[in-house]
Specification:
By secondary structure, the chain is α+β, with helices and mostly antiparallel strands. The chain is 40% helix and 31% strand. The strands form 6 sheets. The chain has a 6-stranded antiparallel sheet, with helices on both faces. It has a 6-stranded antiparallel sheet with strand order 11-10-9-14-13-12, sandwiched between helices. Helix 14 runs antiparallel to helix 15.
Length: 772
Amino acid sequence: MLLAQNATDAFADAASVVYLLDLGPPSTWVAKATAGEIQLEDPVVPADAGPFAELMNDPRPLIFSGQQLVREDYAHLHARRTVTSLAYVPLLVDESPIGALEIASFGPEITADDLDGLLEIAEHAALGLASSIVYEDERNSLLESVARLTQLYDLEKVFSSTLEMDELKPLVVSKVQDVLDVQAVNLWFVKDQNELLLMERAGTDPTLTVGSSQSSGEGYIAEISDTGEPLLIAEDTDERLRVRNGGLAEGGAFSVIACPLVAHEKQVGVIEAINKMDASPFDEDDLFLLVSISETAAIALNNAGLLQAERKVAILQALVQVSAEITSTLNLDRVLQSVVNTPSTVIPYERASIALEERGKLRLKAISGEEQINPGAPEVRTLEAAIAHLSGLTTPLMATQRDQVIEAPTADLKATFQQYFADSGVCAFYAIPLADDEGRLGVFTLESTDPDFLNDAHLEMIKVVAGQATVAVRNASLYKEVPFISLLEPILQRKQKFLALEKRRRALLVAGIAALVLFLIAVPVPMRVDGPAVVAAARAVQIQPEIEGVIRKVYVREGEQVAQGQVLADLEDWDYQSALAGAKAKYASAAMEMNRALAANDGAQAGVQRIQTDYWASELKRAEERLAKTHLRSLLSGRITTPHIEDLAGHHFSAGQTFAEVADTSQARVDVAIDESDISLLKAGNSAALKVESFPTRTFRGTVSIVSPQSQMQGEDRVFQARVNVNNPDASLRPGMQGRGKISIGWRPIGYALFRRPALWLYSKLWSWFGW
């Protein structure tokens, strides 16, 4: 600006423009400052426009008279006055032009002598402008470096924001496309040592489709993978691009940069950028930027790959666990429970179930998280209704709901699952048939509130689990028939051996068997059922104060025998004694006033005092009752069972809070746990014999008073409690003692006593096989 102003001031009536030379391509003069009455139509002037062409060819001071010039020579200048002459002074550094000073005179014509005074100024100005240009370039370079570092930092944050490979791959290619401003970015992954797969793309590339592969020796992508070196192809005539385009008329690759993705000395793949959007070829700066980005992308992709590998390991471990559990047993219920519950460690479903075919219909047999199915539960009925529509399923089925839109294979299933999703609240339902060469066994289903809860790895695992489940269910079903076959076979063998015996030996054997059967049927024996026993008190009461207060004194100790009505402890009674004394005084005063009124024949006053006397008589009685409640008495005869009761003096008790417990030890109640298979034999009045661990040589006898109507869990078995009343005059049996009790149920044939349990077991097995 100073140079333009000085040049304008050096002439009487002139304007000036300072230009800097931009060598392009194409070469142009760029206006940087103006002074005087002049404007520029365009700050950029071609290097070969008008007088500038001569200045470009011969960088020396030039003067053009207005009569020599035509308007087109200075068409870039917009002046409302007539230009009498134009002068140009080159700005030289080391005899090379970096710019020019243009002077337009509207008054006297410019002469060579006029320009002499500007040459020295122009020389110094050229040096200053050159320094400024160098500084500006350095600053722009620094700013560009900072911008790139910022971009790389942002990319690193974006790439590290997720470890999900399916989310990361499109994120990497889209961000690289944005940063490089290119037509397309391809992401290749290493499939094996000699092959790469095109896994992801951002943009358009008609030369290759996603999923394409390239092996060693087939192209430059495989070459980059083999050598580990980045590649720049700037010429569209390159043979490698010709092969890549394959005769494509338009839209093909005309410039390419690519580099390997390496993280921790391990190659992940190759990233490739095609065609800059401004149609210019790639250069070394573009390649350097891609290499810088690839380092961050490679680490992110490698971490995502490690996560995938860990998940695959977890899936394999889950498969091994499922396989081990379902092959370790031939119990069908246990197999089904393992199949619906174990995969939950790696598959994010919310409910799994298995339905098996019975008489042509699917019957729900197992639901994850439930040991037993409650057929009456609303959610179970809803699930059964949905599964009923899968009776003809031969291939896996996926039904989902996204934004109230149902996706299912057929219109009928869409209607079914629209109702099911509304009733159950889930948004995804996956079903896979369980079938083998012998036919279909049933269907395995998974549900979730996330419509995208299954990925490819999960689906592969489900297929394997379904296959293992099919084999396990088939084996378990066949096993049900095996015991019956193994039972008949030895019977047939023994029959053949029996028929092979001599007639006399056969007769003796039949007679012996008949005698044994008669003995088992005809000879009775006393039969008893037994179980673990626990002693409890027959009667026990809790002593609770009726009023709030502090225990003043305790008269008994733990284990002491007390009589009914005996005082066990006293509460602090100062307030109650005071209230009683006040009531007595008030009563005496009222009675005296009543007597005085009667003596004076004052009937009205005597009536009033009579009412006062009756009132205070009731208050006196109430005060005496409250005072009596400060004595805590036993409600029955028995022993004190409260630990350290003597230490409760000084403790505050609220009304109704338990102070002590008194148990009647003259009789004991013993609970004998009887297995549920024997409960039908018991009844009230059965005699019982008991032994406790504290008195191993002594037998206590009693009578069953009641058999509990509800069972309890004891370990893995269900039992019923038979409550036996036992006389305990010497208080030998104390609450909490343990032992064993035997209850007599009368005389039964010896065969009944010996074979009742095996017969019941055999009957239940036969009923499960054939009964309904």
